[in-house]
Design a protein that fits this description.
27 helices, disordered N terminus, elongated
Length: 648
């Protein structure tokens, strides 16, 4: 969708404001336009240099914090391992006390006159046990690796101190150049990879220490060995699992499905948070091994079918974890339904989920309400009411406005009794497939209706795809009425006859939704029907538009109104305080006047007892909030809002 150019006077005001802003930064009258621009350029360079320096400081701060933690752990591990090696190294040489005992035995035998001296056996040369050699190898390797990691940790801190040193420069441009030189050299000499490898050295040291402990216990007693073996294996197993999980659970590229509007393959993707240098190494190795395999047709098809995410990343890998996270978020910033009539529709799934979480967390804080209102103004009111505030029941029957969003945001979530059933969706809604599919379908219908004029959309039931979408929604969300009523409310009274005829194609879906459905809860279905009757009566009675509803002119529409009224009486739908008798009677009266329908086709609604009659006549008005606090339903053809409690 091409946005219109700004008005000429608006452009002139912008240029004037820009000139005034530039001149306000200069001291004294400038000699020429270049001098007037120089202070602005200078300030921009200084601001850019500060932002670059801030970015580098943040990166350096993270590296320094990691190195400080590494040095502490390396010192602790070295102290522990040293205590064990002080004892274990003695196992590699002969114990002097054993030699003393041997000599005493020999002397004792020599003093015994009854003992033949020639029978005295000589002790063989000392040889350490194989297990002692292994244990000492493991423990000394652990000590060496931990001390080595500490040594290089100190070296890296020195490198970082010099890398991030604040060197005086003559101009901000020179400072930017110096920062860039150091940054490129930092990456060219793989200092980042070196820093990432230091924790791996410390982890290897800890692993060798555990192996030595288990080897020692194995030679002493089987019970403590078995217990410690299980605990160590659990720890090591968890370590390796968390290392390979980020590679196994890499998110799939959903861009093709988003551009095609394929809701069946869309999902809220999660990124594995177990990110570490060793996990990144596993990811890079996996990509390097997989990429050559894609040159073989059979392997390419196998990986694409059974490991699509790995196939996507082998085709186009990411430079770091942060870029991977951003790619997942930005997928939904692309145009959905690319190449179709809704090519300008953007889902922005993760932004909506962030808004939903923020509203749930902070809506009880009065100081945050104005900020939340400002944020929700950046998105469609219908999307804010449904996807963010969770009022799907409201958006099914009303065309939401900013005032509706404001009221819903300020009210208590439990302060209002719902008038229509909510969709059966797991919460949080956007995290699950059914909720995402419902949001995608409703956004698409609204976009094509209100932004494209409904001319390009064919709702004919002869198209099996349209019917399949509606049927699938009915099953997944547990409702019979799934098409937002605001679509037909707008289309049936549109000035364009083509749009009105297109809108009448939707009548068949409402006819099917109205009819009894096997296996569906009757009371829940009746609640939906009452909501539909409320919306239909409001549509018929709205006399502020210049066009008469196509529903009252079309023969099929007239028959539908008669059928609805007949079923209201036959099924006792009027036996509810939510049913507004006077509003519906006014609607059928207008239908008779416009369509020239005989009154004999509309049976009178039976009266109820006097006690029940009060709430019957009031309908939703009996449970409506006080004036000024209700939902202001804003009709498209009128600026004056009226209160509607439907869906709230």
């Amino acid at each position: 969708m091409v946005l219109p150019s700004p008005p000429k006077n608006h452009t002139e005001r912008q240029e004037k404001t820009a000139r005034e802003t530039m001149s306000s930064h200069s001291v004294g009258p400038p000699a020429n336009p270049d001098e007037a621009m120089n202070p602005i350029v200078q300030q921009s360079c200084e601001r850019l240099q500060k932002e670059v320096a801030k970015h580098d400081e943040e990166v350096g701060k993270h590296w320094k914090e990691d190195l400080d933690t590494l040095l502490v752990l390396a010192g602790l591990l070295s102290a522990v391992v040293t205590a064990f090696t002080i004892e274990s190294y003695r196992w590699l040489k002969e114990d002097p006390s054993d030699t003393t005992v041997t000599l005493l035995v020999q002397i004792s035998r020599q003093l015994d006159t009854s003992q033949n001296i020639t029978q005295i056996s000589h002790k063989p040369a000392f040889e350490p046990e194989v297990s002692s050699i292994r244990i000492n190898c493991f423990w000394f390797l652990s000590l060496i690796l931990s001390l080595t990691s500490a040594l290089f940790g100190l070296l890296c801190k020195q490198w970082l101190r010099e890398h991030y040193s604040n060197t005086p420069t003559r101009t901000p441009e020179e400072a930017l150049a110096l920062h860039q030189l150091r940054r490129d050299s930092f990456e060219r000499w793989s200092v980042s990879a070196f820093l990432s490898a230091l924790p791996i050295l410390l982890q290897l040291a800890l692993l060798f220490f555990f192996i030595g402990i288990l080897d020692l216990l194995r030679t002493l007693h089987p019970i403590p060995f078995s217990i410690c073996f299980v605990v160590v294996m659990l720890g090591i197993g968890l370590y390796f699992v968390t290392t390979i999980l980020p590679t196994i659970m890499i998110p799939q590229n959903l861009t093709p499905f988003i551009r095609n509007g394929d809701g069946e393959h869309l999902s809220y993707q999660f990124v594995c948070p177990y990110k570490s240098p060793q996990a990144w190494t596993i990811y890079r190795l996996t990509i390097l091994i997989t990429r050559p395999l894609l040159n073989y047709g059979l392997m390419d098809r196998f990986i694409r079918r059974h490991a699509r995410a790995l196939w996507d990343h082998a085709k186009s890998s990411t430079p770091d974890w942060s870029s991977l996270d951003l790619h997942v978020v930005r997928q939904f910033d692309q145009d959905a339904f690319s190449g179709s009539e809704a090519a300008d529709l953007k889902l922005k799934l993760y932004e909506l989920r962030a808004f939903e979480w923020a509203v749930t967390k902070f809506r009880d804080s009065p100081s945050m309400i104005p900020h939340l209102e400002n944020i929700l103004r950046t998105i469609s009111p219908a999307v804010a009411m449904s996807a963010v505030l969770g009022r799907w029941d409201f958006t099914l029957w009303n065309d939401a406005s900013q005032s509706d969003v404001k009221f819903e945001l300020r009210r208590s979530p439990t302060s209002l009794t719902l008038c229509s059933p909510q969709p059966v969706l797991r919460t949080p809604v956007l995290l699950h497939h059914d909720g995402l599919k419902l949001m995608l379908t409703h956004q698409y219908w609204r976009f094509v209706t209100f932004d494209m004029g409904l001319v390009t959309l064919d709702f004919s039931s002869e198209d099996p795809r349209r019917r399949a979408v509606v049927s699938d929604l009915q099953q997944s969300i547990g409702l019979r009425f799934v098409i937002p009523f605001c679509i037909v409310d707008w289309a049936w009274k549109h000035h364009d006859p083509v749009v009105r005829r297109r809108g009448m194609q939707l009548l068949e879906y409402y006819e099917e939704a109205w009819k009894p459905f096997p296996g569906y809860d009757t009371e829940r279905h009746n609640e939906e029907r009452r909501s539909f009757v409320k919306a239909l009566a409001r549509h018929i009675n709205r006399a502020d538009c210049t066009m008469t509803s196509e529903l009252l002119i079309d023969t099929r529409g007239q028959a539908f109104v008669e059928m609805v009224h007949r079923d209201v009486v036959a099924w006792g739908l009027y036996r509810s305080m939510w049913f507004n008798r006077s509003e519906w009677q006014q609607a059928i009266k207008r239908a008779q006047e416009v369509g020239g329908l005989p009154s004999e086709g509309f049976l009178p609604i039976p009266m109820r007892s006097n006690d029940s009659l009060v709430s019957l006549e009031l309908g939703c008005d009996a449970h409506r909030p006080a004036e000024g606090r209700g939902y202001p339903y804003e009709d498209r053809c009128s600026e004056s809002p009226t209160i509607s409690c439907l869906g709230g």
